[in-house]
## 1
Amino acid sequence: MKLAERHIIKRGHRFWAEVDHLSWQSKNLYNLANYIIRQNWLYGHGYLSYNQMASVMKQTEAYLAMPAKVSQQVLRGLDRNWKSFFQASSEFKSHPEKFLGRPKIPKYKDTKKGRNLLVYTIQAISKVARRKGLIQLSRTTIEFQTRVAEKVASVRIVPQCDCYVIEVIYEESEQFLTPTDHIAAIDLGVDKKFLSASRSSVETGRGSQPKLLAVSRLYASVQPKLVSMSLSELVLYILTSRTYILYQGSSSEHSSIGSFIPASMDSQTPGIDFK
C-alpha cells in the first residue's frame, strides 16, 4: 500500500517562493494544454489523447519550464480530468437523476491566483540524495530530510488555500493478521448486556446500557468546545474550572472501570460495572 509523509510549507518558509513558482508554472502548462484540447474538441476535431498532447507540447516554453517527468504528470492529470468528464457525460445520458446538472468540460485555472499540483516521479528525485536520507527534487534547490528515503515512490506538491503540502509517497507492505493472533471484539447490546468475542471464547457480561449512553451524551456535549480550544486554552480551562474529576464506581461484586467524567455530572451517577 502507499502512504504519505507530509511536510507543510507556509508563507515565510525558505521553500515557499520556489514551491509557489513551480505550482504557478504547472498551472501555465495545464491551462495551455487545456486550451488546445478544448478548441480541438469544441470545433469537432475530436479529443487529443495524452500521447498526442505530449508530442504537441514538448517543445513549448511551458513544458520546458519544468523537468520532462513533471510536465508529463501535469498532462496526465489533465487527461484524467477529461476522461472523467466523458465518463460523467455518458452516465448523465443514461441516469440524469444522479446529477444536479449536465457535466461541464474541465475549466481553466485562474491566470493570477491559480496554482496546480506537481508530481515528481522517482526519476525526478535525486538518487544520490536518497542514499543520504534526503529528498532533492530535480532542477530545484528543494532538499529536505525524510524517514522513508529507501521506500520513496514519488513526491507531490499540493497547493492548499494558505500553504503547500509536500507529500513524500512511499510503499509499505500490508500487514495481515495471522491465524495465531489474538483478536477480540465487544458489542454493546440493548438489553443491558454486552458480548465479548475472541478466537478462543465468546462471553456475555452485565453492563448498563443507559450508563454508557449517559457518558456518551456528556462527552458529545463537551467535545466540540474542547476541540475548538488551543493547547494553552485547554490547559487553563482544566486547571481553573476543575471540569474533570476522576470517578470510579464502587462495587463489592464487580470490578469497576475508572474514567474521567465531567464534574457537571451528578456525583451520584453509578459507575460502569462489568462482570
## 2
Amino acid sequence: MHPQVKLLTFSTLESAGDIEVKLRRKAKKAENDKNRKSRYFVPAVKLFGGRLIDYVEESGHGVPRIVTSCVRTINLHGFYHQGIFRVPGVQTDLQMLQQAYERGEDPLADSNNKLTFDINSIAGLLKMYLRKLEEKLIPDAVFESVNDASTIDDETLRVEKLKIIMKNIPDSVLIVMRYLFHFLNQ
C-alpha cells in the first residue's frame, strides 16, 4: 500500500445517524437565529428612567441603540409621515418595544424592508425614552440659560453664549444631542 494513502475505518467515519443529528441541530439553530431579533449587550444601568451618562459609559455606545434604531427606522419609513411626533403610538406596541430594548433586543433591527410596528409607536418610544431619562437631555441647570441665549438677536453673540453654556454639559450628552438635532434638522 502507498504510504500517503490513509485507510478509512469505521472509527474515523461518523455514522449516518450522528451526521443527521448534527444537521438537524444546525438547521434548528439557523431557524432560531432567523426568528430572533438582534441582541446586544445589556448594561446593568437602567435604560428607561436611568441616567444617559451612565448608560453610555457602561454600554460603550456614543448614542444608545434605542435612539439610533428609532431614528434609522423613522428615516426609512416615517420621514414624510404627517404628525409623526404628534400622534400617539399604540400603547401595546410601546410596551412591547420598551420591554424588548430592556431585554437587550433590537426589535427594529430588521425594519429595513418591512415595518413591524406602527411608525407613531416608534416615534412615541423615542419620545418616551427621552422623557423618562433621570436627567433631561438639556439639564435643568442650563435650561434657563439656553432659553435666555436663544432670545439674543445678534447671531454671533447668541452662538458664543450657547458655546459657553454647552461647555457645562457632559460630552456624552452633547453627542446624543448633536445626533438628535441632526436628525430633526433634516
